[in-house]
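Structural prep section.
Before we set up the soaks we want a predicted structure of the protein with HDE in place, mainly to decide which crystallisation condition to try first. Input record follows.
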Amino acid sequence: MSTVAEAIKSAFAGPARTAKANDMQRDMLDPSKGENYHTTSHGVKVANDDSWLKVSDASGKNVGPHLLEDQIAREKITSFDHERIPERVVHARGTGAFGHFKVYDDRAKKYTSAEVLTDPRRTTPVFVRFSTVQGSRGSADTVRDVRGFAVKFYTEEGNWDIVGNDIPVFFIQEAIKFPDIVHAVKPEPNNEVPQGQSAHNNFWDFVGLQPECMRPFFVPFPSLIDYLAAHMVMWVMSDRGVPRSLRMMQGFGVNTYTLHKLHGELHFVKFHWIPELGVHSLMWDEALKINGQDPDFHRKDLYEAIANGIFPKWKLCIQVIPQSREHEFDFDILDATKLWPEELVPLEEIGEMVLDRAPEEFFSQVEQAAFCTSHVVPGIGFSDDPLLQGRNFSYQDTQISRLGVNWQELPVNRPICPVLNHQRDGKMRHRITQGSINYWPNRKEQFPPVPPSEGGYETYPQKVEGMKQRIRGAKFQEHFNQAQLFYNSLAPYEKQHLVNAISFELDHCDDRGVYEQYTKILNFIDFNLAKQVALSVGGVVPDRPAKPNHGDSSRSLSQLYYAPKTPTIKSRRIAILVADGFNLAEVLAIRAALSAAQALTFVIGPRRGEVFSAEGRSLAADHHYEGQRSTLFDAVFIPSGEHAYALANNGRAIHWIREAFGHCKTIGAIGEGVYFLRDAARLPGIKFQDDLDNDAVVVSYGVVTAGTYSLKSTARDTLKITSGE
Ligand code: HDE
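Run finished without errors. Recording the tokens verbatim:
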């Protein structure tokens, strides 16, 4: 076992991992243990929980109104009336899980005194909440959107939150523009349309209506108007906007933070999470269909993996720039609309996060979870990144309106280390602090400040000099170089997806001025991109580039870069499509082989429950063809047997396979299953050998591999079903 694997294994057994779980235990009720009867919220046993107190005659017939007197019914209804709290103004739809984090070694010690990042003996409990941004709490999971990736570390020195996204840059540079971008992307105020997408006039109006970009590139005077969204728009419209799974996304802190130690040099830092399983996306058509077929697809996928013991893992990496090199780059390293290309600032892998526990109760542990960028621990600090400065104000403020001033006392939010101060009172105060002292200094020396040498938080002593002005620096005013860099770095099919996505979105804008304007802006990024989109949406087709494309690329910007070194099918959902008369031995063998590779298999039959093999033996189908469509699986296998003729006569089964093929899923078949593929499903563009004397095929990315595949060997040799890019 590798050292990392050993470390993670010991982390599972470690006491610190359970520190947060133990802490929350204080507030947990397990209904399967202890007393079992019904009470009011003030603890009185309830004799009847079904009828409101009312006037009736001797026979029990109702002869009068309900009585307001019924304190039991009133309490129940009032509690229900107040069940909802305001949903998050952005990132309303989300899900989360608990786990732990551990660094590999102490290599980050050269930058920071933060023990969570430097002490390999420590296991820090974490809670992570993933979210979409635009839609409301009830919107679907697989919409095109940015995903939130917020991590709360319950460290021994207090809570540290990295409130990040799955995209490394942001739309705007200054917090003062946040209400505008959010209003623009959210449903329009007159009709509350659209839900769960940015495909509407206001969003494209906002990101396109930026007069500066129509001027020559160097803006000679300071500008107050944003024109920044171009880079992030490229990311959201790329495959990143429709992840296959929350477990297959990168995470980014986005903002520039700082690392420091007592009396050491200040370092700027960006945080990155890299998923073990690689970075994968849905196809847009798939995403659209899943929105209807299973709007909870992502949250179920997260819990399914955890329940099956396939715990999602990410590496934590840092990019570090010493303060002395701050101005060496042609972009401003404090500008959140820019990334730090890895060719210029390499990633350093420092630790690993594992999520291994689903929440027990969604509301108290996920809905009430609250993050703050301002939550840092000694050794970690802020930079002058203007977006971060604004965020540091906004999060604390929003938690007060969402959860009340004592939100940090809620079980999921409270630290595992002591909280000792003189802050008191406020709505829903939970803790009872004894004694007469609630101020500092006090005659009892109660809760004295702690010097930095003993762990008190020290703000890095930064020298500041300048004028008070509402302006942005010159480097903040260049907006297209990195949009080009991102576009140039994509594989050809990724570029095509991006063109399709922008074309879809602009087609949903019915204001001509809006879609014409955005096609003009695209021409500042890439001539071909602009031309293709303009042609499909009826925009302004350019005849020459508005700005030359510099042609540079960065390989880590394509998702392909993150494909795991050893291909894996861990946690992939693989359907076995059958009708009565299938070959049971093959199904059992393929199931065993795939399970050995930690893939999840599901039998899909004409009905849920018993289906019968050629020999009349029964097998339980997990779902029927209509119940779970091909979109919900990563690959499909069709065994041999006479069942193939029933499949061939079933329109839904044919659609199942053709749709899987259209979404580039890997399809494997044996014997008569191959005839079904060839003669009934008639996969377009696929040429099967005429004689078909091979008894198995695998169709992957439109390519057929034929041959004999042994069902006795390992899963990967059996059918080359690998994780798709
Ligand atoms: Fe947020 N953001 N944000 N944001 N954000 C919120 O806080 C805000 C930004 C992000 O799972 C709110 O608790 C401002 C960037 C995530 O609970 C609010 C600005 C990034 C979450 C808020 C930004 C994010 C939020 C709404 C511009 C990526 C969900 C509810 C200055 C690095 C956290 C809440 C969760 C949530 C403000 C920009 C990520 C209103 C003012 C950049 C993942 O406080």
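Observations: The longest strand covers residues 94-103.
Flagged for discussion at group meeting.
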